[in-house]
Fold:
Amino acid sequence: MENEYTILGERMKRTDSLAKVTGAATFTADIKLPRMLSAKVLRSPHAHARILNIDTGRAEKLPGVKAVVTAADAHGVKWGVFKYTQDHPMLAMDKVRYIGEDVAGVAAVDEETALRALDLITVEYEPLPAVFNPDDAMAEGAPLIHEEYANNINIHVHIDVGDVDAAFNQAHLVREDTFEAAGEAYSTLEPYAVVASYANGFLDLWMPNAGPHVRAKALSNMLKMPLNKVRVRHINVGGHFGARSEVSPGDLVAALLSIKTGRPVKLALTREENAACTRQIHDIKATIKTGVKKDGTITAKDFRVTYDGGAYSSTGPIATSIPYYVYEEAYRFPNVRYNGYRVITNKGIRGMYGAHGRAFLCGNEVQLDMIAQELGMDPMEIRLKNGLKVGEETATKSVIISGGLEAPIRQAAEKARWAKKRIGLPEGEGIGMGCVAIMCGFPMGFRSGSTCYVKINDDGQATIVSGIVDTGMGNESMAVQIASEVLGIPPEDINLVNADTEVTNLDPGAYSQAASFVGGNAVKRACEEAKRQILTLAAAKMDHAMEDLTIKDRTIVSRTDPSKRMPLRWVVREAFFKGEPIAATGAYMPKISFDREWIKNPQGQMAGTYSFGCSIAEVTVDRETGKICIPRFTAAHDCGNPINTMAVEGQIEGSIQQAGVAVLTEENRWSDGWLLNPDLLEYKVPLACDMPEIDTVIVRSNDPEGPFGAKEGGLTTRMNAYSAVACAAHSALGVPLKQLPLTPDRVLKALDKAKGGDA
Amino acid sequence: MMERYNVSLKVNGELVALNVRAGETLLESLRERLELTGAKEGCGLGACGSCTVLLNGLPTRSCIVMTAELDGAEVQSIEGLADGTDLDPLQERFMEKGAVQCGFCTSGMIMTAKGLLNRNPKADKGDIIRTMSSNLCRCTGYKKIVEAVEAVSSMSEPENK
Ligand code: FES
Ligand code: FES
Structure:
C-alpha cells in the first residue's frame, strides 16, 4: 500500500534526540537549584526486624546537617496501588522487612556530611526470623511478615473458565511441567534520583517516572497535601521498563526533607542502592498443565504460578495477572484455570516489568513444542491452529478487533525461512518460535483515558499539551508526528508540553502500552478539532467548500484546485481578530469494561485493542561448555500501523536485547535476603557483541480504533523473545530447559539430568 | 580537612583551574564544578561507560579517574563536540539512524565512538561492535548505535560525511 500520509510512518528524527546527542537533555541528577541540599538514606541491615528505637540526636547536631526524617515525620499513610494493597510505609514504622529498606533520611550541605550523619543515627532492632522464598513463606508456622496476609499470601488471582477437569479427562494428550526463573533487575541506565523543592506551600518534584499524575496523587496522599500543591514536573527519564511505575520511598524521603528545611533537596541513589532498594523483578515458578486433541487443538490449561513478591505489595494484583493475560490474548483456551499466588518474602520490593513472566511464558511455549513433538507436528502449525483471530474472544471475554496471531507467525516464519531451517539443522543448532499478544492499556478506572489541548499560535505554529509520558521509547516524538500529520505543519513548528501535573491532564502514563493507542488518539482528536476550526474559517475567507480544503506545508489548499491556497497564519490571525483563537481539546477513553477488577472480577474487555507478535530465534549450543549463542533473531510485531517506523524497530531491537539475549545471562542472585549482584559488573546486561543479527518485521493490521490504525509499538517482542530462545535451545538439545536464565551451568545440569533419564 | 590539589586542565578547549579534593573524580569535577552534566553516572564503578569523555584524545571513564592526577591534561566532553550549532557527524547520524532512545547512554556512546574514529577513521563493523561493547545501553539493542557509527566511519558512504 502506498503511504497516503505526509509524515506518518516516516523514519522521523525523534524530536528529543537533539538535546540528547549534545548532552543538553536534563535528567533528574543533573538538576541544580539554589540552596539545594544533598540527601542520603539510612537503610535496614536486617531482613526482618522490629524497630525498638531510633535516635537521630547526634546526627542532627553534626555541623552541615539541616534535617533528619524518620517515619515519625511522615503521616503514617501506607502506599499501595489498590485500597486492599496499602502496606508500604516507605519509611519503616514498626518493622523493617528487607535489607535496604528506608529507615531515615538526612539532608545536609553536601553528600559527605549527609553520609557521616547516617553513621550517627542509632537504631535499635530486634531481629525476627525471616523467609526468603515463597515455599518457605507459605509453609505452616512460617513467620508472618505482614499481619494481614495469612501464610504470607499477598495476592491470589483465581480464574476459572469452562470445565477444566472434564476437558483433561477427554484430552488425547496431557502434559504437566514446572518451570522456574530467577527475577531480573531493570537495570535502567539511570539510577534513581529525586529532587524535591518545597516553597510557598507548593511541592515541586522531579524524578524518573512513568506517570506524573499517579505519582503526584500518591504523594499528596502520603504527605496529606492537597493534590494541586504537589506538582510533578517534566524531566527526561533514563529508562523505565516498569521500574519507574510507582511512587518510590526516595520520593517521600526527599519531599519530607524539603518540607522540613524549606530548601530544595536532591537524593541520588547509587547503582547498588538502585538495585537493592528500588523495585526489582519477581522470581517465578510456574506449573503448567496442558491438554490437547490429537490434532493439536488445546482443550484445557491449568496453571499454578507463584511469584516471589518481596516485602510489599507494589503492583501485586497486576503483576500476578499479566503473564497469564498476555498468553490468553494470543491463544484460544476453551477451558482454563489459573491460580496465581504472589507471596511476601523478606527480599527487596518487586514491581511490573516489560519482560515480566518469563518462567510462565517460556514454560508454555517450550511445553507446546514438546506436545507438538509428541504429536508429530510442526511447532508453527500448532501455534497457528490455536492462535486467536479477529472477532474471537479471549478466555476472559476480551474481543480481538484487529490483527490476530496468524500474520506475525507467517511473516516471521517467511523472513527467517522457518520451513527450510527447521528440518536439517546440524547437530548443536536449533530454531524456536515464541508468541504472545499484548493489551494496549490496562484498566485504570478514570485514568484509562488521555486528554490533549492544542492551540495554534499567531505565527501558525502549534503548541500541544498532552499527558503523554516518554521514558525513552519516543512517545513525545510520536505525539508531535501525529500532530504534524493532522495539522499539515512540519514537526519543527510544533512545541510539545507534556507530563507536568500542573498543566497536563490525566493520562494512563507509560506503563501499559497505552501511549500511542490512547494518548495518540487524544492528540489526533485535539488536532482534528483545531483543523476543523481552521478550515471552517478558511472556507469562509476563501469562499470555497470546506470539504475540499486541507492543510499542507503550513498552507490551506484545495484538494481539487491547487491554485486555491492561503497561508495558515492568515487564517489563525483572522481567528484572533474574531476573538475566537484556534484552540481545541481532544480526549480518548478506550472501550474497556470498567467492571473488570484484577481479583474480584477478572473478566470483560481488558483493553481497547491487542498487538500480536512472533519471535524466531536461531541458536547454537555447545554441549561441552553449555554455552548458548544466538546468531540470528527475527521478530514480527503487529503494531497496527507504525507512526514512526524507526522507533518501532528500535523498540523491537531493544526488546530482543532485554528479553531474548537477557534470558541467557540475567538474574538477580540472593543469599539470605542479600542481593549479591547489585552492580553492573556482576549483573550481566547484554552488550553490543552479544547481540544477534536482527531482522524486524513490522506487521500491519490497521486497527479500527487506533490513531491512523496504530497500536503499541514493540512490546510483544519483549514478552516472547525469551520463549523463542528457550524453544530454540530445546530444539537444539532435544532436552527441555526448565530453569531460567539459560546459563551454561543450568544447560549442563539439564543435559546431565536427561542422561540420567528423568528429564 | 582532606588534602586539596590545584590542577589546571583544558576542558573543551578552555583552560580551567580547579582546586579539588584528593578523591574527586573527573566526573564529579565536570558535573558539579563545571556544570557539564552531559557525562552521566550510570554506575560510578567503571562498568557502564555512560561517563565516557576523551582524556588526551582517548575514551576514558571519568568516574574512575581522579582529577587531582590530571594536571595539564586535555578533556573533551559531549558538550565540546559540536562546533556551535554545527553538529559532529556522529551526533547527526545518531539522530538520523534512531540510535537514541532514553539518551542516558548517548553521550558516553558518542564519545566512545569518537575516540575509535579518531584512532581508526576506517573502523569496520567488527571494530565498531568490539569497541562499542565497552558501553552499556539498556534501550536500543545496539543495532542502530552500530549503524550510526558505521555511517560515519569512512569505510562506508563517504558522501555522507
Ligand atoms: S558511570 Fe563511569 S562507567 Fe559507569
Ligand atoms: S538509550 Fe537508554 S540506555 Fe541507551
